[in-house]
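#help-structures

NK: newbie question. if I give both the sequence and a SMILES, will the prediction place the ligand too? trying with pyridoxal-5'-phosphate
OV: yes, paste both and it writes out the complex. here, I ran yours:
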Amino acid sequence: MQLETPYYLIDKARLLRNMEKIAHVRERSGAKALLALKCFATWSVFDFMHEYMDGTTSSSLNEVRLGHERFGKETHAYSVAYADYEIDEVVGHADKIIFNSISQLERFADKASGIVRGLRLNPQVSSSSFDLADPARPFSRLGEWDVAKVEKAMDRISGFMIHNNCENGDFGLFDRLLGEIEERFGALLSRADWVSLGGGIHFTGENYPLDAFCDRLKGFSDKYDVQVYLEPGEASITRSTTLETTVLDTLYNGKHLAIVDSSIEAHMLDLLIYRENAKMFANAGPHRYMVCGKSCLAGDIFGEFDFERELKVGDRISFQDAAGYTMVKKNWFNGVKMPAIAIKELDGSIRTVREFTYADYEQSLS
Ligand SMILES: *Cc1c(COP(=O)(O)O)cnc(C)c1O
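OV: that's the protein plus ligand as structure tokens.
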């Protein structure tokens, strides 16, 4: 029986391709890889990812708890700012805590003295061209950059986290940015035991020069005598998941329109925020449609795509790359039916791991 749409479909065979590349990088470079939960937190596949990765990193109490309870292994805690009421619980779930600022470190250093402590550095250069997602943007609150100030805090920390790549598939650019980090922070790095280079490096993408990447990481690790960490979010799950939808109506208003039983605002919000179109394969043929969501937002549009045949009510449309920053951002806008979550096993069988009901919608508010 075919599953009722809408649903997210995580394909383990496709996920495995990323996992195998991550395992190769760990093996060859000596770096450890932590899943960034803010990108992907669908814990039903954590048991599968577990053997290929070293643990998780987080950006809140909820995430660090999920990482600890559902993934296990190494659990890094980071947050832009911790509140007094949550710090004890955060420390209880983590084996390493990375403070965003020296003032947060000073405030909570004692409470976190039982686990490894670190600080986020901001190198003031990044690969991001989108202001909204640029950690090195002017006046950024993300990390410390003043070496003299950081030096004074060295007695309370043993390592650093630097996250300044963003969807960076260009190894040359990664290499140059890391070089700038070394120039700026080399003296600090030599005094550290570990350095996390954050996420945003698209090393699981096709044609990425994986071995050059590994050698660069290994060289960095040897030079400063540090354990290197990577925090892949998108790179861990890229191209593993689709959003499966069904056409509910077709119209012609100067363009051919097709309305599906989903919503980009509710179910693929990140695309709307960054003004990108959804991805659809094969996207070839003589029939062009603007595929729209069923919320009442005028701009609830997945994109314009080319189809082999005319679309009819009941046709299925599958959007690619529906894992990263997608399932974690789904919401109940318009009360649109929440996509179920299904997993395609390596043997091809599909099982539904979560369905959402009216009760979930009702309980999301009060
Ligand atoms: C967002 C983020 C990540 C993951 O980034 P991806 O682009 O999904 O790989 C890792 N570390 C930190 C500190 C982040 O803010």
